[in-house]
Amino acid sequence: MEDIKIATAQFENRSGDKDYNLDVIDRLCAKAVGQGARMVAFHECSVTGYTFARHLSRQQMLDLAEYIPQGPSIERLRAIARKYDIAVLAGLFEKDEDDQLHKAYVCVDKNGLVAKHWKLHPFINPNLLPGEAYTVFEWGGWKFGVLICYDNNIVENVRATTLLGAQAIFMPHVTMCTPSTRPGAGFVDPALWRNREKDPTSLRLEFDGMKGRGWLMKWLPARAYDNAVYAVFANPIGMDDDQLKNGCSMILDPFGDILTECRTLGDDVVTATLTPEKLTQAGGYRYIQARRPDLYRDIIGKEHTPLQRVVWLKPEKK
Questions:
Q1: What residues have CB less than 8 Å from 200, skipping those under 6 apart?
Q2: Largest alpha-carbon pair distance within the chain?
Q3: Is there a contact between 117 and 148 (Cβ–Cβ < 8 Å)?
Q4: In terms of C-beta density within 10 A (0-12 exposed, 13-18 middle, 19 or more buried), how is residue 255 classed?
Q5: How far apart are CA 300 and CA 302, in angstroms?
Q6: Rounded distance, CA 279 to CA 23, Å?
Q7: DSSP characters for 98-120?
Q8: Residues 164/146, Cβ–Cβ less than 8 Å
Q9: Strand, helix or coil for residue 76
Q10: If pLDDT is split at 50, 70 and 90, which confidence band does 314 have?
Q11: Pairing state of beta strands 250-252 and 243-246?
Q12: How much is the pTM?
């Protein structure tokens, strides 16, 4: 294994405007390549847009979704990857010949589709089916995993992906700045985004506080640290439908330390070097070796009925 440079991006996607979103992906890939990146990661549903899908009917979802790998967006991603000789990772809604719908995240290089992950815990539209498998693939001499947004909030998913061999996990999200039962959570006023050039301080206070980055820092470094993996987090910035998102795309190392982070109030991409020695130097590597599955195999594996509630999407009735 050799060092590898990877980039993570943030941008303000347009709902349903694939051509625009793919143009931005192209532009940010060019910038990342200028920084030496060999792989560039974008957020969940970066091709299609995301939050607006909560309003779509089944037929509208089918019209938005594409076949993979034969759909036009995959071909466009392949053309971008071929132009810059890189791997591009991006998300979109997928349909199959039976009109089943999934939330997909793909890795594409000049040769075509390298890997695809279906979100294990989808919720933005009731017509989406959950994925039933973990995703680990090899590229550039490294083994990578993919977990989409809510997938990463279930700690078992990150550990399972690591145990399957992942040394770095792509974590594409559309998250933060929504209400929940957590103290300090809530929406951020879109007016602050529109006024960001005149008053960046007020917007940054909201983005960096408990509505945004403050919450992210409660768990994201722990996922990297506990599993001794690199975490490549990608998140949109700006308006996603009627919700304001705060970006903070970043790459963390196996010590849980931030190597690089998008800190601009707009479209951006940052690059970090992944080095193999950290995979075994980090404490999480030793902790994984010290595991005793005999103690908790039956506890973790016992029957359980999944119950997934997203407070901002379906507020509880009082």
A1: 265
A2: 59
A3: yes
A4: middle
A5: 6
A6: 35
A7: T--EEEEEEEEETTEEEEEEE-S
A8: no
A9: helix
A10: low
A11: unpaired
A12: 0.97
